[in-house]
Each structure stands twice: as C-alpha cells, then as structure tokens.
Amino acid sequence: MRIAVTGKQGQVVQSLLRRGAEKGIDIIPVGRPEMDLADPASIAAALSDLRPDVIVSAAAYTAVDKAESEPELAFAVNAAGAGAVAEAASKIGVPIIHLSTDYVFSGDKPSPYSEEDATRPISAYGRSKLAGEQAVAATTPNHVILRTAWVYSPFGANFLKTMLRLSETRDHLRVVADQAGCPTSALDIADAILAIAARIKTDPSPSLRGTFHLTGSGEANWADFAEAIFAELHKSCGKSIGVERITTADYPTPAKRPANSRLSGDKLARTYGIRLPDWKQSIKVVTQELLTKQFRERA
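Predicted structure:
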C-alpha cells in the first residue's frame, strides 16, 4: 500500500513514517516547498505525481492562539487547503483520510461528544477546522474524517514534551484542571489510520466513509495528564514534581478552549473494530521512550 501524507514534520506524519516502516507500508510525506496548503494550485500536481492508493490529509495550521489574530491564514490552510487536497484525491480516484479536531465543538456538553452532536466552534482555529471538514465532505464522498484531541508523541512540540522539559528546571508546576478530554498518542493514531486505509482502499462501502472520533480510551484533565507523566519520571529517576491544579481562568489564553473535549469512540469501534488503548498506558510508552533517549544523550 502506498500512502501520501500532507506535511513532513508533524506528529502524525512522523508517527506514520515509523509505523509504515515497521509494517512495510510505503508512506510518502509531501509538503513545502513542492506543496503548500496555502497555495491550492501546488496541491494537485504534487499529489497526483505520487500515484498513492490513499491520501492522508494531516498537515494543518495548528497555532490555536495565533489564529485569533490571523484567521485568514488559518482558513487558507485548514479550509481551502483541505478542500484542495480532497479535490486532488477525487481526481486521482483514491480515498482521503482527513484529520480534524475536538475544537469543532463548543465544549459545553456535560458528556462525551458523538459524531451526531451539533458543532459550534468557539475559536478561529476551531472554525477553520470545521470549514475544512465541510470542504472535504462536499468535495468527495470517498472520505474519512477523523476528529482527535490532545495529541502527543515522541516527535515535534506537544504537552508531554513540554512537561518533561519544564521538569528539568522546576519541581512544581501549575496545570489547568477544569478542561476534560483524553490524551491521544500520535503513534496510536497512526496505527488506526493504517488500518482504516487498508479497509477503504479495497472496500467501497458507504458505511466505512464519513466522520469518526479517534482518541485514547478513558478521560482526563490536563493536571491528570501532567501527573501521569511525572509518575513515569519518578519511576525512572526518582524525581518528584508537584502539580498545583488551577482553573482556565487562572491561565488565560487568546483563544478559548473547549471545557469538554471528550469524544466518544463508539462509532469507530462499531464500524472498524478500532478502539485506541487507555491513555495512561500509551503515555507510559511515549514518556519512557523520551526519558530513555534523554538519559542516553546525557551519558
């Protein structure tokens, strides 16, 4: 199987490259300079030249707070760019798997969101990602939209790596505890994408298409997430980091965050038989990998 993935440095792209190498699947990242999501004219040629079996639309504008001051760029990449990728997939005649986010919801529902719940983004980033979903769905029926949340991995910049970096110089951190969601490993996302791609490459069933939620199993808040990371740190080197639980109001940001980012994965489990591992287990795997690398570099 030959999969083209938009972007080159993102967490999901890097995770797909690792998992693809392990499974003997050809993963081809494509991005700047040969393809720029802000330049739709560059997209069709770059993707068609690769002759993929499936296209994964993973690249995006992800600067959540900065999007509040430059919404035009966020929409150019996340909406128009996503639509152009979907158009390229349609012309080539292959399925597209498009990655989206919990930010398409307002976060005021008291229970986990299902795919049938009404979207109501409360930030420019969320609005741009919802517009991207709509552009993909309107362009080709041969699509799978995967909404995920709180992504971390051994690659790039993410909350887990930030906590480990801060732990090097601090023994106490203040972390928001009134936003609920589920930490999701990009390596687990990559495993799910490869399984889904294999199915939709050969099976044209409409039931396999549409929008699905893809997050780690269980739920947490950001303080829970931090404490799980520091528990692994303590096991590895005995260092203890205190976590003070604070509110969103104590840590203001330009963009509003959903208070509830919990996404139900039941539809994906029913349709594909896929349910991601418990978030605590996946955090152990990634944290230990990063700590082992850190210790080796210092040796």
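Summary: DSSP finds nine helices and twelve strands in the chain.
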